[in-house]
Amino acid sequence: MTQPPHNLTALGDFKPSNIWQTHINSIFYGIKGPLIHNHFQTYVSLDYRLAHALANDFYTHAKNQQPKNETWYVQEWGVGNGNLAACFLSHLREIDSENEVYPSVHYILCDESEEILKGVRANPRLQEHASKFSTVRIDAEHLNCFRPSSVAKIISNEIWDDLATKVLLKHQGLFYEEYLCPFLDMEAIPAEKNIFLEQFNNKDLTNLAQLPPFLDAIHWERDFQRINLDDWPFAEILKAHAEEFKDEIPMPINVGAFSTITKAKELLGPENFGYTSFDYGMKTMQDLNQEGRPYFNLYGGQYTFMVNFPLLENMGRSIGFTDITREYQNQFVQKDLGSEAISLVDLMQQHPRVAEMPPWDRDILMLSTLHALNTVYRSPYSGKLDYPAMEGTPKKQRKQIAQLSKNLSSRGVPDTVAYVTREEVLASLKPLRKLGYREKDIEAAFQSPPPPVSFVHIQFST
Ligand SMILES: C[S@@+](CC[C@H](N)C(=O)[O-])C[C@H]1O[C@@H](n2cnc3c(N)ncnc32)[C@H](O)[C@@H]1O
Q1: What is the crossing angle of helices 309-318 and 255-267, to 10°?
Q2: First to last CA, the chain
Q3: What is the number of the ligand 1 atom nearest to the C-alpha of 81?
Q4: Is the distance from the beta carbon of residue 80 to the nearest atom of ligand 1 less than 6 Å?
Q5: Which domains are assigned to the chain?
Q6: pTM of the model
Q7: Which atom of ligand 1 is nearest to the CA of 45?
C-alpha cells in the first residue's frame, strides 16, 4: 500500500475497486446529467453513423417479420443525451418507405440517472418521435422491471466501462484483487467534514450538487489483496480465462457487464435481433497481456475501467448465446457504409506536425480539418458543433478558434470523433494538403494497426 499525501482525508475504507467505482459514477451522473459531455465525447453523442448502421441492420431483420404482440421493443441501456436513439428512429423512419417496421417500433431508453433522462426527454431530435419512445429510470445491473422474452433488440454504447469492475492480478500462481480508497483535501470543500462525509457516503445528490466540483480532485490509493477465485461469480470460466494471464498485469473483470449480458439473454424474445454493445477495451488475449496498457481512466471524476472482451465472449457462450461477433467498431461502420471509415481525430493524429503543436494549435488544426472535410461532407442532420477554446489559450489563438468555430457548417462533420470515409477524405485532398497533410499521412490513418485498447463492437445472438 502507498501513503497518501498528508493533507488529504480518507472518505471511507479500502474496498474492492468495483464498490468505489460504482459509488463515484452514480454521484457523477446523478449530479451532472447531460453536462457529462463536457468531460468526454462518445461516438454516438453527436455523430449519427453508428446509429444508422444499427437502424439499417434492424430494418433488414425486421422487415419480413411480424412482431409478437404487435410491437418491436428496442431497449437502450445507458443513454447519455439520447442522440443514438433519435438518429436510430429518424433513420429507420426514413428507410422504411413502405411503413413496414417503424410504426411497430417502441424504443425504451433506460438509465439510472434521472438528470440524464430529463436531458433525453428534452432532446429536440428525439422529440420528433414523441409517441415512439419512453424512458425508464433503472440500474442496468438490476434490470428487474421488464417481462422475460419481451424485447427484440438491446443496444448499449460505453456503459460497460462504467459498470462494476473488479481488477485481478496473477502472481506466481496466486491471485490478488485491487482495492481502492478515495482521499480528498477537506480544506477545498466549503462544508463541515462530518456533514460532507455523510452526504458523500449516502450519495446525497441534492446537497453534493450544491458544492463546487470535487470529484475530479479525488486522489485514489490502491492496494492488492490475496483472494480465492472460487468465491467470485462465474468462477470456473474465470479460472480458465486466468490460465492465459501473464503475471503482474492488472486484468479488468467486468462483473457489471456480466449482469447485463445475463439479463439480455432473459429479456430477448423468441424473434430477436440480439444484444449489441460498443465499448472501449481489449479485443484479444494478446491485448490483455500487453505490458503497461492502461486498465482504468478518470474523466472529470468519472471512474471507468477498460472492457475485457475475450472474457465477456466466454461468458456469453456459457449462458447460451451461440452466435457472437467481436470486431473493431470501425469495421462495423465500414460494413454498413461499404467503405473504409476512420474517426476524424484519427486522421488529425497523422498530421506530420501534430506531436510538436501546443494544444491551442492542435485545436486550430482540428477546426481547419473540419472545414476541409466540410467542403464535401453533408450531414443529414442540422446542428452546429460547439468548439470553445480551452483554458490557457493565448488571445490571438482564442480569436482564431472563435472565428473558425463560428464559421463551421451546420451540415458539416458533426463531431471531432465522427466517422469519415476514405472517399470523403480523398475528395477533400486539396484543402487538406494546404493544411500540411501528405497523401502518406492519409494512408497511414486508414492503415494504422489498432492499439491494445480500442473501440470494439460485440453482438450476442442465438
Ligand atoms: C459514458 S455514458 C454513455 C452515454 C451514451 N450511451 C453515449 O455513448 O453517449 C454512460 C451512460 O450510462 C449511464 N449509466 C452509468 N451507470 C449506469 C447503471 N448502473 N445503470 C444504468 N445506467 C447507467 C450514465 O448515466 C450514462 O448515461
Answers
A1: 40
A2: 45
A3: 9
A4: yes
A5: 11-33+164-252 (no CATH), 35-161+257-336+454-461 (3.40.50.150), 340-447 (no CATH)
A6: 0.94
A7: 9
